[in-house]
Write a structure and sequence with these properties.
Elements lengths: L1 E11 L8 E9 L3 E5 L6 H9 L1 H5 L3 E8 L2 E2 L5 H4 L3 E4 L14 H11 L4 H14 L15 H13 L5 E5 L7 H16 L3 E5 L3 H7 L2 E6 L2 E6 L1 H5 L13 H11 L12 H12 L3
Parallel strand pairs: 3-8, 3-9, 6-7, 7-8
Antiparallel strand pairs: 1-2, 1-4, 4-5, 9-10
């Protein structure tokens, strides 16, 4: 089943001189993990706003084309209605927290209480979500005493507790150190294993390559490339689009120029690189 269908969408913000997106079409199946990359100003955040209904309902502007989320046209659904289908994670987790909850479990329960759910169901959802993300030990901690990575995982927990079918994340690791980044990607790996549809905007190409099913490259509001991580992230044309190659691909290219790379194809992940290097180096 198709989870998301974007059909020939062009969108310009109210005060924009040029469209933020130009004739974008994309289909995402249920359970797929899609990575979105591109330079600043390429339309990545606007794409996220399409999926959450912020465009066109909140930002207004001029929009042509249609977006369907789980068979429903976003033009006909408000942002609140779409929130039941799509969880959205901001770059800065602090912006997503309520500011009134005194503990992690109260923060996760906050949105559920606003839905008017019964106490027993709220408790169950909170417990299941914290356990699923591996942050049960943080249950009684204040949200304001968490590290950046822990706060972002809490923001993800708040979204997941609402039981969305789709999760959209707009550069969730942009303000995190390597440890916090690893915590977030570990959470995403868990959600992918559970079959959730995930759309992730991310600059960290190496981590992205390890997990996603497909990569979409945006450039000046258009889809410039689209395909598997191997097809897209080894394409030398990425540099001209403002996107770097994975470090393992760069290493393999350097070895290939010296006639030292044993493989017929370039790697995009650490595992692929290690497998090929063992052919010439042996176990290490």
């Amino acid at each position: 089943m198709v989870a998301i269908s974007i059909q020939n969408v062009t969108y310009r913000y109210p005060k924009g001189q040029e469209p933020a997106l130009r004739d974008v079409s994309l289909e995402i199946k249920e359970g797929e993990f899609i990575g979105v990359v591109g330079p600043n100003g390429s339309g990545k955040s606007t794409l996220c706003h399409l999926l959450t209904g912020f465009v066109p309902h909140f930002h207004q502007g001029e929009m042509a084309g249609d977006v369907w989320v789980r068979g429903k046209n976003t033009r006909e659904l408000g942002v609140a209605d779409l929130a039941r289908e799509v969880g959205y994670i901001f770059q800065d987790p602090f912006e997503q927290l309520s500011g009134v909850a005194l503990s992690v479990h109260e923060e996760v329960a906050f949105g559920l209480e606003n839905l008017g759910l019964g106490q027993a169901e709220i408790v169950q959802r909170v417990d299941d979500t914290l356990a699923g993300l591996g942050i049960q030990p943080l249950r009684e901690r204040s949200p304001f005493q968490l590290s950046g990575g822990e706060q972002q995982r809490l923001a993800i927990a708040c979204a997941l507790a609402m039981n969305p079918k789709i999760l959209v994340l707009d550069e969730p690791t942009s303000q995190l150190d390597p440890l916090g980044c690893g915590e977030v990607f570990k959470s995403l790996e868990s959600m992918r294993a559970r079959g959730m549809t995930i759309v992730l905007v991310e600059h960290k190409i190496d981590q992205l390559a390890e997990q996603v099913d497909r990569v979409v490259v945006l450039h000046r509001g258009e889809i410039a490339m689209h395909g598997s991580p191997r097809d897209v992230l080894t394409d030398p044309g990425l540099a001209g689009l403002g996107v770097g190659l994975p470090q393992y691909t760069i290493l393999a290219c350097a070895l290939a120029r010296r006639g030292c790379w044993p493989g017929a194809v370039l790697p995009v992940t650490r595992q692929e690189t290690e497998k090929e290097l063992r052919k010439i180096c042996g176990p290490y």
